[in-house]
Amino acid sequence: MKPKITVFIFAVMLLGIAAINLASPVRGFSENENRYLAQLPAFSWDTLFAGRYTPALDDFVIDQFAFRDSWVGVKTMAERLLLKGSSGGAYFASDGSVIEMFTHIDRDRFSRNLTHIRDFALRALEETGAETTVMLVPTQSMVRRHVLPLFAPENGNALLGEAAAALEGAANFIDISPSLNQHRDEYIFYKTDHHWTSLGAYYAYNSMRGQQGQPIRGIEQFRLQVLSTRFYGTTWSKASLYSAPPDVITAYITRETEGLGALRVEYSDNGHISGSLYEPSFLAAKDKYSVFLNGNHPIVRIGTGLENGRRLMVIKDSFANSFAQFLAADYEEVILLDPRYYRGQYIDFARENDITDILVLYGLKGFTEDANLYFITT
Amino acid sequence: MVFSSLSFLFMFLPAALLLYFLSPRRLRNLVLFISSLVFYAWGEPVYIALILFSTVMDYVLGILVDKYRGTAKSKYALIFSVAANICLLGVFKYADFIAVNIGALFGLDIPLPNLPLPIGISFYTFQTMSYTIDVYRGSAKVQKNFITYGTYVAMFPQLTAGPIIRYQTVAEQLESRREDAGQFAQGIQRFTAGLGKKVLLANNIGMLWSQMSSMGAENMSVLGAWLGITAFAFQIYFDFSGYSDMAIGLAKMFGFTFLENFDYPYISKSVTEFWRRWHISLGTWFREYVYIPLGGNRKGLPRQLVNIAAVWLLTGIWHGASWNFAVWGAYFMVLLILEKLFLYDLLQRSHNAAGRIYTLLAVLLGWVIFAFDDFSMGIRYFMWMLGGGGIPFANSHALFALSSNAVMFIFLILASTPAPARWAKAVMEKLRGHTILSVTLTNATVAAMFLLCVAYLVDSTYNPFLYFRF
User: Fold this and answer.
1) Cβ–Cβ gap B189/A240 under 8 Å
2) Domain encompassing residue B273
3) Residues B195, A10: Cα–Cα separation, whole Å
4) Residue B468: what pLDDT?
């Protein structure tokens, strides 16, 4: 009798799970993982004998496994019970958030990218008269070290000093880390994503104004509006810590610009024109951070309606998308160029558009990995 | 196909078991043979021809060896079988290695054949050789039924990674075996234990090894180097012994009893003992078909040392077509000869702890040789372990790896000893008489372990199989 119970349970698990898998529908896209799932491969003798069919079928079975997200959640819970400090390249922080690791630093690429910016800034000044300001956003793992697991091997802090030294005499390097460090216990980074929150960007913005000798803009100059309370970011997907609470996305709308009612945002790649810095359609999808400026585009032109003759060119990655809210308070026009997508002549572009100021704004981790900055010097 | 995959667990295995048990007894070997070929074709659709060729060849040669018993023809058939199997291995496993070395020796530029290694070839060639040798020696009866013989060679539980089953072990079971629920239930428990070793232990700690082995000098530390190679030692043990457990468990489900392949090797008090507990089926094979035929220990000490040397160089190179494996075999050859001459007796007289520490250090150093195909990398890593290369004793990378894996290491150390099995037995002893409680506890543990493995496999970004390529 006893062994039959074991056999019965095993049979139920094997056949039951197999049957549920056969019966469950095939999914196309995983919101949690933010990727397309493998689909049932079409059988052919050619692909079989080439050894391509069965690996594709294995991928299909794994990706389409019924209740996939729940299984993955169980695994993550087990990892936490084992007191693992990290999973999928993200730390389990003591405040319940997941924080992207920044331990493998490509120092060669970092210094090459600094050289590209230095060359660019010198030429831009000479040929257009516009000065370049550079802001690199320290990673959450650098700013919020105090919530990382014990001995977390983070060593990115030296990079900002190296950047300041490398750009000396060519560009104004704005070190925002003192300001972010001062506010490290506030909600300046998302708990489930590597980006900064609008509040984090706000502190960095005032830090920049302070270092440029301009008065601080008080929070009362912005109208705060909650865009989403259910944002799960990419770090959450990497760590698959599905128990973590969602993030809140807040817009900081410049009252003065809003009052003018003349905001005009133009996306060059698809010709789309909008009257807002926010694209609410993304709030229904997984990638809610793309609510800021409609995600990443080669060229985004923001006409603010101000008439002060100041025109800013921003060379940037996605960290600038939420920073642009604040720039809209200061410039007549802000043009964002993303070197990952825009392959034109950057200095000619600055001259033709009567650019008066240039800002280079990147997340530090992305900056050490980006292979496209070469194009800005062309 | 590997056992630790969702396609195996929820497609192949249920289908194979259903077909097998729904078939009448006389067709069961055929069902097992055909499903084994499907299993093999999953990973190597083209090389299915090779395994069939090898099966047919040794099937015919076995009959010839038997038919001409007592004449020279019988011996020729045997020699042909052994030579052909070694040629198969030579061509498909060592061709590139031989070409590179001959090229280097004579300064020639020999084009490399670049043949992909057929899965399991090191295992099934050894099995088919054992068959013809056993038939020649009369320690096994010739098998005239091709399906029965094919089932022996291709049987999927042991096909890709052993254990190496000698024909005489399963000869009777192939023809008359009785599957029953008791054996099936044992098979389930054994299979789940093996799956847990592979998926929960080996894969998990394997990530630490891959992190440390790919780390550059700038982030390395002495502690990190030791953690890394310790992680590798655990990974390879739980990977391989887990696979053997799964094979033994699956075989039990189909009514076969295989011999044990691992016996807690890391508690050994000498290297000699380690090799009696590690990959037992390979050690047995080399003893039965190389060491003893060469004269074993019956022809005096000098000849015995030569025989040991032969076995260990072959054992080394069996593990892979690369010089580091030959060096690895030679390294153990030296240790075993030293133990044979005096060290073993010395260890017997000293404290158990001394023997254990010496054995673990010797085995860890062995894994450094084993783990790096590139010899200079292995030497660099070894220097790091000794504090060379100007690296710090510890750094945050190592301390984070240690603290992050501390619980894991406790599990790994415990699982390397017989203690958990002893505890489980003691608990069952206590529960004697409480049938419902003990049955519930056993089955809940097995089911929970199985489901946890599934959860890890669903999120399997890291699921290599170390012994797949040997």
Assistant:
1) no
2) 183-458
3) 14
4) 47
